[in-house]
Specification:
The complex is a heterodimer of chains A (376) and B (208).
Chain A (H helix, E strand, L loop, with lengths): L21 H9 L16 H6 L1 H4 L6 H7 L7 E2 L11 E5 L3 E5 L5 E5 L8 E4 L5 H11 L11 H7 L9 E3 L5 H7 L1 H10 L1 H22 L7 E3 L5 E2 L2 E2 L3 H21 L6 E3 L8 H7 L3 E3 L3 H4 L2 H8 L4 E6 L1 H6 L1 H17 L2 E5 L9 H15 L1
Parallel strand pairs in A: 1-6, 6-7, 10-11, 11-12, 12-13
Antiparallel strand pairs in A: 2-3, 3-4, 4-5, 8-9
Helix pairs in contact in A: 7-8, 8-9, 9-10, 10-11, 15-16
Chain B lengths: L2 H11 L3 H13 L4 H21 L5 H24 L7 E7 L6 H12 L3 E9 L1 H9 L4 E5 L8 H9 L5 E5 L5 H7 L3 E3 L2 H11 L4
Parallel strand pairs in B: 1-2, 1-3, 3-4, 4-5
Helix pairs in contact in B: 1-2, 1-3, 2-4, 3-4, 4-5, 5-9
Classes of the chains: A alpha/beta (376), B alpha/beta (208).
């Protein structure tokens, strides 16, 4: 498709046609039941794509939410809990010439390029190092009785009625990824060795806050699935020890999973980059049965993992971004390799992370066209 | 291996830096040869954690806390090694390439190399060719380049081309980097992870 201006600047492509609602389609596909066509979604794009890809830049599309609408993707919203509140004051704390040191909402200090180009943050310090630091932050920013943690259930129900036509997820936060966000990766690793009780209390705090949230929203709204976020793996595997994961994290997932299942929510994905394979048994044991976005260069071809674990496991994502970088031939070969997985159900293909700016726009459009042609 | 060395060895593997410190201080007080301490306990312990990593029995956190424990011991014995005229196995410099500020992987590679008996000149992040050149000027036999992003990875080619024909080995690694990419740009070696980076250095410098 040419990215020419259309009458509706936010509608570059129409939604794929179909006979089911997006909600019916998503749920049926994840349950390995027949569908009219594949659920059509993408994870999103780096900020730089919005400046460099003409179809975004020339149509004033500046965010992933706008891109989802413009490209006609099926809706995929979630209801989110409140996490840190109040957040740490954000801002620049030091100017180092080519870079700046900034403090984020989580209290982490990050070195960022002064020119503002898009990059993964480079964290250089944390507001929490010792148990005393944590006690202070917990008392101030993770209060269970914080009135801001009360959900306006009536408004939520009105916004997401039971007869809606799109799938709705309840976000179950993060048990350890956000703890890592408070400590940095090295900080978490060293704290797990030096202050294991502190780290366990941090995980417990995350769990209790999510339980409080779920107790409010689950009885009120009929959710189609649960979501989560961890990002606790490198390319070479987990960035927490498997012992800590099994002894401290998995039992908290299990508590959350029990609440979800009690309200009929049995599809649960968590967002985790890197090589997630060592964590899959723990995920499945606790009820997390869907991987997202499944980075192929780290975790291998999605077919291998799905074959190993069978229909209990599902994957959202799993399209190798390197194929999108390489061009049409690689894109076609890759999509053909996942076609049997789409056919079998429990697998919704999309780029295995935010699409990076080194994917050419024409490659990306070729990919979307081919995906439509093969699975639409 | 003596029993006392076994305690040090075990302490490094489980990342117990307090025991490492106590054991090394005791060995120094007992006037035991620190080279034996390093070659008999510390380097083998890091080799073992690397082997466990290669077998997927340990992951980056275990390597990191083991390397921190090892470093605690190294800090105590390094002055004594220098006094005794001990030479490292080789000298290397490493840095994250220009445009990239990420250093977790680079730092871990540095710690694993020290744990394997190499002298490591850490050039930091955002390294251009001039920084790597300076490292070579200080005696590095090999240059190690790290990158986290597909957008910064191409600078590795610039580094490889710069050192071509100079007798300096260039080894690359990082999340988006592959063996195929290393071959494409003509790098001398590739490390898929921190443990593999040590093996790559040993291979390209003919130390195995």
């Amino acid at each position: 498709m040419n990215a020419t201006k259309t009458a509706d600047p936010f509608r570059l492509r129409p939604p794929w046609s179909g006979t089911l609602t997006a909600r019916e389609r998503f749920v049926r596909q994840m349950r390995h039941q027949p569908v009219d066509r594949c659920f059509n979604m993408e994870f999103g794009y780096w900020n730089e794509n919005f400046q460099t890809w003409p179809m975004f830049r020339d149509h004033g599309i500046r965010s992933n939410e706008e891109a989802d609408v413009a490209l006609g993707f099926d809706p995929f919203p979630a209801v989110w809990p409140l996490w840190i509140h109040p957040g740490f004051p954000e801002g620049v704390v030091e100017d180092r010439g080519a870079t700046r040191i900034v403090r984020n909402r989580d209290g982490l200090l990050a070195e960022v390029p002064r020119d503002g180009h898009d990059t993964i943050p480079h964290f250089v310090g944390s507001s929490i190092v010792t148990p005393e630091d944590w006690a202070e932050v917990k008392a101030e920013r993770f209060r269970r009785d914080d009135p801001a943690r009360r959900v306006d259930v009536a408004a939520l129900k009105a916004r997401h009625p039971d007869d809606r036509d799109y799938p709705l997820h309840v976000h179950c936060g993060s048990m350890i990824g956000k703890v890592r966000d408070l400590l940095t990766f090295e900080g978490l690793t060293y704290a797990t060795a030096d202050y294991p009780d502190m780290v366990e209390d941090m995980v417990e705090t995350m769990c209790v806050l999510i339980e409080d949230f779920l107790d409010q929203v689950l009885p009120a709204v009929r959710f189609d699935g649960a979501s989560g976020w961890e990002d606790i793996c490198f390319r070479s595997g987990p960035l927490i020890t498997l012992g800590f994961f099994r002894q401290v994290v998995v039992p908290r997932y299990r508590r959350i999973g029990a609440k979800l299942r009690a309200h009929g929510v049995d599809l649960w994905y968590t967002d985790c980059d890197g090589d997630v394979r060592p964590l899959i048994p723990g995920f499945l044991e606790a009820g997390i049965n869907t991987l997202f976005p499944f980075e192929v260069s780290c975790s291998g071809h999605p077919g291998e993992v799905l074959r190993r674990y069978g229909p209990d496991l599902r994957i959202l994502g799993g399209v190798d971004k390197h194929a999108l970088i390489a061009g049409p031939e690689a894109i076609r070969a890759y999509l053909e390799s996942v076609a049997p997985l789409v056919e079998a159900g429990g697998f919704i293909p999309f780029c295995d992370h935010r699409c990076p700016p080194d994917v050419a726009q024409e490659n990306y459009l070729y990919y979307l066209d081919l995906k439509h042609c093969m699975f639409g | 291996m003596s029993e006392r060395n076994q305690e040090l060895y075990d302490a490094i593997i489980r990342g117990d830096r307090k025991t490492v410190q106590a054991e090394v201080e005791k060995a120094i007080a007992d006037k035991r040869p620190v080279v034996d301490l390093m070659n008999g306990s510390m380097i083998p312990a890091m080799r073992e954690i690397g082997a466990r990593f290669a077998r997927n029995e340990a992951y980056v956190p275990e390597m990191l806390i083991a390397a921190r424990a090892m470093q605690t011991g190294l800090n105590l014995i390094e002055p004594l090694l220098a006094e005794a005229g001990h030479e490292p196995r080789a000298r290397v410099c490493l840095g994250t390439v220009k445009g990239d500020l990420h250093d977790i992987g680079k730092n871990l590679v540095g710690m694993m190399l020290k744990g394997a008996g190499f002298a490591v000149d850490d050039l930091g992040v955002d390294c251009d060719v001039a920084k790597f050149e300076a490292g070579v000027g200080r005696g590095a036999n090999a240059v190690l380049c790290s990158a986290l992003l597909t957008t910064t990875m191409p600078y590795m080619k610039t580094v490889v081309e710069h050192f071509k024909g100079q007798g300096v080995k260039v080894i690359i690694g990082g999340a988006p980097v592959t063996q195929k990419y290393a071959e494409e740009i003509g790098a001398d070696g590739y490390g898929a992870d921190a443990n593999a980076a040590v093996s790559a250095v040993e291979t390209v410098l003919g130390l195995v």
